[in-house]
Structures are given as C-alpha cells and as structure tokens.
Amino acid sequence: MKLLATLRNLIRENASTFVSMLLLVVVPVVVSSTLAVVLYNHQDLLQNLSWAQLLLYFAIISITMALALTPTTFVALVSGFYLSWGSFSGIVISYGIAALIGYSIAQLIDHGKMMSFLNRFEKARDLMQELRSQSWSLIFLTRISPVLPFALMNFVLSLLQVDKKKFFLASIVGMLPRTLFFFWVGSQANDIINLLQDPESGTSGRILMISLILISIGGLYFVFDRALKKTLRKAAAKNEENF
C-alpha cells in the first residue's frame, strides 16, 4: 500500500514531466513520416545548398531534433542522401547542440520537481548521486544505442541533472558510431522513400546495430548495478553507525 501511495504521488506531482516524455516518443514517428513524403515530392529541396543555406539547415535540424520533431536516425539518413561528406561534421555538432537545447527545455518543464521528489528518499537520493558521478559513461551508453529515443534521453538525463559540459561532449562521442553508419547508408541510397523505409545495409548493418544495442544494454546494466551496490553499501554503513 505504501508503494502504491508513493507511485500515485510520483505521477501526480510530475504529471507534466511524464506527459512530455510520452510525446517525445510519439511525435518523432508522426513528423518524420510526413517529412518523408515532402522530401519525396520535392527531391531537389536539399540539393546544392549554399554555405548560408547549409548553416540554416544545421540550425533547423538542431531545433527539430531537440523538440523531437525529427529522429536523429532520420536526420543522418536524409543528410547522407542529400549532402556531401563535407557536411558530416556539421551534423555531428548539430546533435550536440540539439542535446543541449533538449536538456534546457526539460529543465524548464520539470523545474527540478522529479529530483526533489526522489530526494525525499535517502536511498533514491544516494543512487542518483552515484549515477551522476558516472554521468560520462551513462550518457555515452544511452547515446550509442540506436533504439533509445534521442529526445527522451535528453529529458531523462536532464532530470538526473548531469553536468552540461559532459552531457554535450559525451552525447557527441556516443552518437558518432551510428551517425557515421546512417550517414553512409544515406549516401549510398538511390531513393529517399526506400531509404527511410528500410535504412539497414545488409547483414553488416544489422550486425553493427545489434552490437551497439548489446554494448548499450550491457554497459548500462554494469553502471546501474555498480551504482546500486555502492548505494546499498553506504546505507548499510550508516545503519551500523547508528547502532
């Protein structure tokens, strides 16, 4: 009963946060499907961009990824299809900027309410502190996975209140393998619709994606397991001091 009451309080006091997280999962799928049709009907839209237009493109995708309007995989595929490899560094930096924008938006929405709620419970507070101390590994492992939604992870990591500089750099490094792969896949494609419907590139592509998912899952399990064990040891030490 106590657990159910705690869960009800958690949901009631953080309703706006949970609704926002749900939207961050649903919205990218809807918007990217619509954009795929637009790009198919206007296939010259992103071709032969000037430097000014390219900078504007980077600015726009930074905002759309931050707002969960376009998935990062979609952006990498489309960019690889339409742009040259000279633009790749701009895509990578755009991911970092989008991460920071998403982080800031999540802070504005949540106002620290989630962490304030968790801080009422000593073990939860200690666990969050341990995870925060391993923030570089945590961020990297959430970013390297091709199945964890980018915008949702921005929100979750913002709730944990990780350091912004680490957040920016670890996001870029973690996103790099899959960004490189999907950009390359886009550069090899002949049709934008077929590309977006089936972005994998044969057996090697599937092996890479599975490998990244396994690295992410295994790494996150290790990080959480280590943080939990440290938290429990700290709680046990406090109990012994009290006795």
Strand proportion: under 5%
Largest sheet: none
Query: On the 0-100 scale, what is the average pLDDT?
Result: 78
- Tell me the radius of gyration: 20 Å
Total count of strands: 0
| SSE order | HHHHHHHHHHHH
Class of secondary structure makeup:
mainly alpha
N- and C-termini, Cα separation: 29 Å
Anisotropy-based shape: elongated
Helix percent band: over 70%
Tally of separate helices = 12
Unreliable spans: none
Total domain units? 1
What does this structure look like?
With 243 residues, the chain is an all-alpha fold. The protein has one domain (15-41, 48-242). The protein contains twelve helices and no strands. It is elongated and about 70 Å long. The protein starts with a helix and ends with a helix. The mean pLDDT is 78.
List key phrases describing it.
single chain; 243 residues; mainly alpha; 12 helices; 82% helix; 0% strand; elongated
